[in-house]
Amino acid sequence: MQPDAVIGHSMGEVAAAVVAGALTPAEGLRVTATRSRLMAPLSGQGGMALLELDATETKALITDYPQVTLGIYNSPRQTVIAGPTGQIDDLITRVRARDRFASRVNIEVAPHNPAMDALQPRMRSELADLSPRTPTIPVISTTYEDVDTCPVFDAEHWATNMRNPVHFQQAIARAGGNHHAFIEISAHPLLTQAVMDTLRSAQHGTRYTSIGTLQRDSDDTITFRTNLNTVHTDHPPHTPHPPEPHPPIPTTPWQHHRHWITTKRSGHVAAAAPAAGTLLGQHTSVLSSPPSHLWQARLAPDAMPYRGRYRFHGVELVPASVVLHTMVSAATELGYGALTDIRFEQPVFADQPRLIQVVADNLSISLASVPAAEASSNRWTRHATARLSSSPAGSALPDNGYHRQSVHGDEIPDVAALFAVHGVDGLPFTWSVDSWAPRDTGLVVGVELPEALPEGSIAPLLDAAVHVGALADDTDPRLYVPAGIEQMWFGDAVAAPRASLILDRTARDSDGITVDVAIAARGGAAAVSMRALRYRALDFGDGQPVAESSDARSFVHTIDWQPRVDVVDAQAHPAPGRLTGPQPVAVIGDDGAPLRAHLENAGYPPAAVSDAGYLLYVADSQPATAEETDVDFCVRVTAEIGSLVRTLAAEGAERSAALWIVTRGVHESVTPSALRQSFLWGLAGVIAAEHPELWGGLVDLPAGADLAESAPILAELLVAPSKSILVARDGVVLTPALAPVRGTPVRQPLQCRPDAAYLITGGMGALGLLMADWLADRGARRLVLTGRTPLPPRRDWELDTLDGELRKKIGAIRALEMRGVTVEAVAVDVGCREDVQALLTKRDRDGAAPIRGIIHAAGVTNDQLVTQLTEDAVRQVVWPKVAGSQVLNEAFPAGSVDFFFLTASAAGIFGIPGQGSYAAANAYLDALARARRQQGCHTMSLDWVAWRGLGFAADAQIVSEELKRMGSRDITAPEAFTAWEYADGYDVAQAVVVPVPSTAAVPGAVGAAAHLKPAQDWSQMPATAVRTELEKGLRRIIAAELRLPETDLDTDRPFAELGLNSLMAMAIRREAEQFVGIELSATMLFNHPTVATLARYLTNRVAPQQDSSADEMAALSASAGSVLDSLFDRIESTSAEGER
Rounded to two decimals, what is the model's pTM? Predict the structure, then answer.
């Protein structure tokens, strides 16, 4: 398109001169850069305002303000004034008092004002060598009062341009005399209405068109082409039309064939590309009460909304700064100036096209996405949430003295290189650090951008702040990633290309750091302020990011019981240091006397606990009584077994012994006595993980089995230890293996009744609230959420004094209510029959809808080693799960509800060290699910691995390390719910949800350590050589984990003094198992706290001819207790998230 004339608005006259051919693009950029550079020192000293007044009214208004000038004649109804900031704000107030529009223009200087007089000489001198040409397209200049002036676009002109008023109204009126189509070249139409007002006022008698090129929050290509076509159709081209006769056109010899094209209709409206620097797409307002807002965009890997790239270990991610800028931009668009309780929940993977949705109401805002290919599945992942603050946009930020901070030169680190060490590659925006000043508690950093920021954009500065904030603590080598922000204010954008970041570290712990951050123009007040920006530390061993599985159904397994085939091999090839052949046996517990006699006949002489090679603990098979409930039984038996383990572990290498446990009927769980023994299945897996050197196994006999008659099979098993549960039925020993859930589903997808209510215990915890959302997606309209901690009265829900966790719960409940769901949040101890019965009685009395479905998600963790378990700690953990499930089982018997879901854990199956009580409680839920299923009830226990960043897994790094050790990982919330929905379609009582192949044996089965291949054949080496090689290899492994040179690692120095923590211990254990070739105890480093003592201990394990030396035992007795206390205390934590 060839314009007939061009007009430039203020600085736009530079672009007009380039288009007209008077300047080259390079010359135009030079003029713009020179003007911007000269004006930069004046930033913050002036401003401009758009007024709904004509020129006469404006001149009268500013009479008493000699430093304020009429800077722009915009239209007959609009003018722009320029001058000192305070006077501009005063005039805005006066105009608004007249009920007329007045607003600040986003600029921090006062062009077209006497403030420019001092800059004109330098403008003339720096552009003196400019050589403009005669324009090839007419230019109607806005610089001069006489718009017919034909300017020479030299240095004098540009000095005048920055000082004179902009005569835009007069230029438009002049052009309207012989032109009718006006096109505004801009990213969003700002002057289109002013153009039409001017043309209508001129009364030329011509029909005009005023149109833009692009429009904010729309698809650029579609908008541009549509506007281009509008201009063409308004003035169709004149095409020559020759007279008759016309030449004949040959016909086409069509060959007709039928072609049927089948198209797949999409259920989703096409989404626009996100706006620059954000993930915001097209904005839609939803007419609800209160109003809601939706922004939807399509994110494509080859068209990201920023210029750079950002990868973590090769996986393309959307940086946290872009997510944060998205939330800020949406809040600003809605008129808010602050956000609180910002949470970064999941990274946004950019490895495939994704649909992005940002949803806001008058309380909160959230960002979610789904792979574009799976848009119809509604498997959305929530990435970030925040609460909108009532602070209006543009209001004053808290004065923390940021503008008084100064930046001093110091050695400047290479920020990109520091992050590259951790696998972070690239930056989304271009910025650099030009000054670096460490302080006692933080940093003052100068940041320089290659150009001034676009209007309203703070994305590059946010990116710099998020990156630099992670470097506020240089004492920790781990990578810090943003986890959340307590409060964030944002005022006017920083327009200058140079800014200061002021960072104060306010807290530091083993999990990360907390930093206060301010972003300000150099020497100016803070434009952005972040209070309590929390960073979470990632260890080097935390692994690489993994995008969600496209088919999370592959995570769903059931347990298949298969005949044990490795008994002979286990007997013929015992592990180093294990017992071989019949040994003295001590039978402890129920019905011990007959069993002792029959085992003695089989060659196992009876012995006291202190002298026995095999300890056989027989669980009590009597039903519960009023004096001893199932919880009481669990507490007592756990204490008894813990005492046995403690005794055996304390004797260490002096004694070879194996602990066995016998249960009856737990496999089927059809009797109350079998159900109460079931917790031992979970406890057994943890003992096996913590103390593989002394674990024998757990055998489940049929319910009511006579122990004397079972003696032969027990005698055969004692010499063949097993980490997995063994089930003896009809002379066959069964062992578990994971099997895929396949076949034809027996149930339709879950659909809740709109006239029923659904109960979620632990419903106010992180996972419980997600489950509430999940039920709402399936039609639930009435939810009862219980927890031990009551919410404050609704009248107090808006108080600023509420902590972040409480605000998040309240926000989640309100979000459910905005979807039309009635939420009843009740403080109830689910393990107390009286509390639950009182709740149900009250609901019946009030005529509430009946409860037709149960999700039992209540739970508490308190990680302790089995040797450290106390009765109080065990009771605390098992109470909500065991007592709670008993109460619910009685209140909602089989057949009374549509579903009964028990959220358990894979801890009992996998054997996670430190989770003995928790695994025991979850094994009880598995057994209850089997019992109810046999009664015909739709009951399922879901054995989850950790949910990434949620619930108990949010801080469970020990669990993550163990999952890695077993070749697994945690799962995301979308993966968890996809797996749940899939499993629910099948008739399974116990679903194991874990990312491992279904063909594998259950971790912990006999032979599960077969993949361990020692670095050397220890059995063929002399004991002294074994010890030397072990010491050398252990020193290498431990030094690498501690990041020390091997020569600096003293073999006799305790690990605790070297800074060893529990996560390092788990990683060292994993490497040592591969090196030594046997499974090792989780407490190995605690019990043998130096390289030398550990090497001696392992020498005795792999080459038993070498006896433990007296000096090792002396060292152990002197230091083991303190090492255990100092190290394992670091992983011991108490959490009650599910119950809150």
Answer: 0.57
